[in-house]
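Protein folding task:
====================
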Amino acid sequence: MDHFQEKEVIQAILIADNNVDNFRPLTDNTSTALLPLVNVPLLDYALESLNHSGIEEVFVFSSYFLNDVREHIKKGIASCSSWSVGMTVRVIGGESCRSFGDAMRDLDAKGLIRGSFVIMGADTVTNANLRPIFDQHKKTLKYDKGAAATVIFKEASSVCRTGNEIMIAMDQQNNRLHYHQRIKMNSKESHFGIPLEIFLANSQISLHHNLIDPQIAIGSPTMLSLFSDNFDFETRDDFIKGILINEELLDCRIYVSMLPNEQYARKVNNWLVYQIVSNDVINRWAYPLVPDMGVCCLWQNYIFLKNNIYKSPTASLAKVILRENVVVQGNTVIGAGSVLLSSVVGSNCRIGKDCKLTNAFVMDNAVIEDGCVLSFCVVGPGAKIGAKSSIILGSVVGDGCVIPQKSNIEKVLVKKSPAENDETEKIGEKAYILQNDTEELYASDSEDELPMESTKTEIPKMMKLSHLINADESDYNSTTSDEDDDSHQGSPIPDDANIFLSEVLDSLARGIQVKSNPDFLILEINSSRYAYNMSLKEVNFNVVKAVFSLDPIKEATTTNVLSAINQVLSRLGMVVSNYIKSDDSMLDCLKAIQECCEEQPALRAKVAQIIHYLYDKEFVSEEAIRMWHNELDDDSEWLKAPLQKLIEWLDQSSEGSSEEEDDD
């Protein structure tokens, strides 16, 4: 009689409801696993990843939001989500399980896990193939029965601290983990306290300090029982440290697996990582988990256009500028004159005219009225932003909030209504600013400017990512030769000053076209200034350069260039005057004109007349012109000669004024 061996079913555990406090106020009433990232809930990314790795049975563990997660899974199965094909998903848990350790002990008590298993957070986004790592872990178990787990890490060269970075010491011969330390999020480590015995007892120890922990592991059957026997194991870090300290007593060991460079993995544990991962998904580093491939659905939601533009066929975008890295979901309407850059807009949204969205994440059914500026912010589902409001610098507007018109929201969290224990400041009938008891961290552009170490729990906010893009590309680029790297780099990434100049140019061009209020243009420019951390001198220089780079001036001939300048400044003179006030700012203005003259022959031929015109209109002073003239070097001979005549005229004017005063 033949005996058929039962086929092993590969199981996985997804832990939901992590880092709820980090995503307030959008997670006050729902699980972080259901937080949409590029218009897809994080849980669906995790389930899709497990399905791609051949996982057949998944247990989604939720505590406080068990019913919400269960309902989402039911809807996904009913709508034939792609992760439901060939994979069984069950939701377990309850409010009695308040931590990762409680979840593991509950799973052990229920006896649902029958062998080695994959475990990861429901907020992890990865395209990694976990099957080879799973098979390697089973091989490790054959020669080491005490192998409790294989933890998975990803090398990264990014210098930005997000709370997921770790430092480890491991044996190069067998990849056994000997030391594990999470790197602090808001300070530099002066030293690492690695026990000397690790180096004395092992001949080939390697140290890794550039690792990201995506919270993925392969667990042995003994892993669950270790949690049941050790109630002080509350987190994954507790488990790892407990095993490393008590290896001999527990007779257990932990091993390490490094993901290849071409595979992507990150845990979304705060708003800064949310922004980073959104950017990576839009830029296709997590392929096939990209918008146009239909994550979790069996149809195509978007049309993929150049510059990473993902537009739903049912979205209405009349005379809207989509710069790059933009996702717009179905049934959304965006008004004329609006500009979007590195932003995600959900379904059924209404965005008004002349709005400017930069690194903004607008969720389903939100309403943004005319003339709003959104930069590095999140707008929750069903929220409404009043006309000419500014939501910037890491602000998060919760679901259902109504922000009054002309509001300026910076660096704060806003919710619809306060809870009993919330300290809030009311700014509208359905808008309350949360007074946090934690100092939320703004990540610095420079390592030397990182804040001092703090004992408080600090949550990084959104920030500009231009200095991280090259690092992220090198992390996930599978090519090795310089020649191959060049072929995959695409267009060069502009620096912040060029992006700022481009945005100012767009704002001013649109301002002339639609006759915008100068105050609104100034608000837009200031928002871009803060978004890209421009100094006042850089703002002065680039505003003037943008004015003299507008099409009416740029396309003018030598004969009509002064007329074109007069026409433009009749509309934008108040904007220029807002920035060009002091002698120093006037010097910035003249230097910008000098650069424009070098690029535009028509301006160069009339440079003296242009400066004379600006002097007559009181944009620049005599003192600023003289100072600028004195600073010109030998390479500017083309400019010195025509300016010399203007200087002589100024001298004569000054002498004439002095003689009139003497006669009086």
